[in-house]
Design goal:
single chain; 183 residues; GDP-mannose pyrophosphatase; hydrolase activity; NUDIX_hydrolase-like_dom_sf; hydrolase
Length: 183
């Protein structure tokens, strides 16, 4: 009888193939429970915060060019947590301020999701932000084309139905908050 606590895939080797400041890519040699060996490509990325800013009437989105897709996307503000962040909430506040210039009087973590379960370990932390006040953006070089867009929740759902919002994190966060009656 097989031990049900044993994972069905055993890692034999874990070889770093590529690395930059945002990610590491590994090639793992694995052994399946059937006894057959195989390969797995794994992208190791840090955790990130995704913030759903809502002022009671409008949701705040960012529009930005996403180089890998060669298109502009509409998404909720989001970004990698940094080592200097003293916690998840501080990282979420920093990202919200950087990308939108918004400060939140109230911010709360709503849950987590995995971005690409078939090849990445990355976890997104969803935050709900209200009591918003506008300040100045502090964009990184990679975000210089970023524009802020506001939409009502009804218009947001129309954009989803029209397939205009395709970012998996944005869709996951909205579903998470909508299912809990927050939006």
């Amino acid at each position: 009888m097989q031990n049900t606590n044993e994972p069905p895939i055993k890692q034999l080797t874990h070889e770093l193939k590529y690395e930059n400041k945002w990610m590491k890519v590994y090639e793992d040699k694995i052994l399946r429970s059937s006894g057959k060996e195989g390969l797995y490509g794994v992208v190791e990325k840090g955790e990130f915060a995704l913030i759903v800013p809502f002022d009671g009437k409008y949701l705040y989105l960012v529009e930005q060019y996403r180089y890998p897709l060669k298109v502009k996307t509409l998404e909720f503000p989001q970004g990698m947590l940094e080592k200097s962040d003293t916690g998840l909430t501080e990282g979420a506040r920093r990202e919200l301020k950087e990308e939108t210039g918004l400060s939140a009087g109230f911010i709360q973590e709503a849950g987590t999701f995995f971005t690409a379960v078939g090849f990445s370990d990355q976890t997104g932390h969803v935050f709900y932000a209200t009591e918003l006040s506008q300040g100045n953006q502090h964009l990184d070089e990679e975000e210089e084309d970023l524009k802020i867009k506001t939409v009502t929740p009804s218009d947001f759902e129309t954009l989803i139905k029209a397939n205009m919002i395709k970012d998996s994190g944005t869709l996951s966060a909205y579903a998470m908050l909508k299912s809990r009656g927050i939006l």
